[in-house]
Write a structure and sequence with these properties.
single chain, alpha/beta, Rossmann fold, Glucose Oxidase, domain 1, 3 domains, eight-stranded mixed β-sheet
Amino acid sequence: MARSPESLRSHRWFGVSDLRSFGHRSRLRQFGYDSVDWGGKPVIGIINTWSDINSCHAHLRARAEDVKRGVLQAGGFPLELPAMSLAEPFVKPSTMLYRNFLAMETEELLRSHPIDGAVLLGGCDKTTPALIMGAVSMGLPAIYVPAGPMLRGHWRGQVLGSGSDAWKYWDEKRAGNIGEEEWSEIESGIARSFGTCMTMGTAATMMAIAEALGLTLPGASSIPAADANHPRMCAAAGRRIVDMVWDDLTPDRILTPAAFDNAISVHMALGGSTNAIIHLIAMARRAGHALTLSRFDEISRHVPVLANIRPAGAFLMEDFFYAGGLPALMAEIKDKLHLACITVTGKTVGETIAAARTHQPDVIHPLDAPIYAEGATAVLHGNLAPRGCVMKPAAAEQRLCRHRGKVLAFENYDAMARAVERDDLEVTPDHILVLKNGGPKGGPGMPEWGMLPIPKKLVKAGVRDMLRISDARMSGTSYGACILHVAPESFVGGPLAFVQSGDEIEVDVPARRIHLHVGEEELSRRRSDWAPLPPRYTRGYGAMFSQHIGQADEGCDFDFLAAAGQVPEPEIH
């Protein structure tokens, strides 16, 4: 049953006959608005993460106007509210340090202002989960508008994918196979438009997950940012949020446990980023669902990789869009989805994908001809990772999925970075590189250090993959036999802290096992000798982060944000 204008949250600000509401209305008139603009209409907050230094979101300044157009067409009153812009290439030490900051800002922007519904504009890696986490905690009707991928890159007749081909050709440069001229040409050709990475990195993965959860319009997640379909989608989202407010279609009605299962299934079928695991756990817990690592592994056993997109495949997001996009992929795995889940359209997943078709089967494979038989991600457990760690076997050399080797251990990133460039480093392709202190507290902020560089002497010899283990993350555009998110992290005294060079580690991905071959007595001795490092930050946001951040298997949310309970509405005095 549709709500009345008097039931709108904004009515408390604008619809009451008192001095305070007089002040609110007079300030709107100061902008040049009149009562016809806001009177009895839903106020729609457009949370915009545009900035001059975020190329992924460079077009969102204009797209906000498209959203406003749609809101006005549907009889709403749009107000744009800028929020922190997490520019993945530039923000240091890691955008992950600020995901929760943006989640807090989103929640508080919506709570403290006279907002009835929200349109969330974002796309760069941590922005999607941050916006959704904040909106979920606030509980207002909300729709997510993905920024969309950039156009494919080009160099000397070859198609380039951002991130993935940067790592690839950097190793070729380190090996001496290409020079400065070629490297400069690649630099100029790899990113040709605004928009997110066009590989199946974290940005593309999280935008797709938002759609799989039911938080976007159908097909929105893969529209190229420069395509005319994109502003049309933005306007349609503006129209739709107004109806969502009248229908009181809030995130809790959409984000059910079944919806998160759908998102995990889509993640597996896409060959998605390992980072998505952390974000999905955090989003689910904000929605009141205790999602665990084990659920990812259960679903990965039954959902193969179908999307032939780099880094696990050959194509790019532009190809995926023309092949049918996410609705087509979801139609291929419809027997593995909960089709009754509701979406922001008010329709079910089943209704949404009923007419979807795959137009290019070499880009979106059928279920009976996957590009990788199991899902994108494997969750391993063992004495090195009692609370789990993750790997993307679809993007690794398969010989390394069962491997035992000697360790080269590094206490920090700088030590590792210096060592791998040494020509006299004693290392073989069978060694296992281990990096410590790259986790949530140790990084701090869990930087993308997990794709440890292959030692230069091995790169020159033609080696392009080896086993690497850390408590850090890696870019979703990365590839290789990298084991990540080891929990608990070394900085807080997890077993990874006690690994030494010369130890042996055994990895068995099919058995989901990781084991440090060091006796319990020796491990106990190392544990008693271990001393924690001092906190990285002693003041400010960094100190708050370090004191309250959870581990990777918990979603890396703040303990005080993940806690149950509602924040009271602000008093209007």
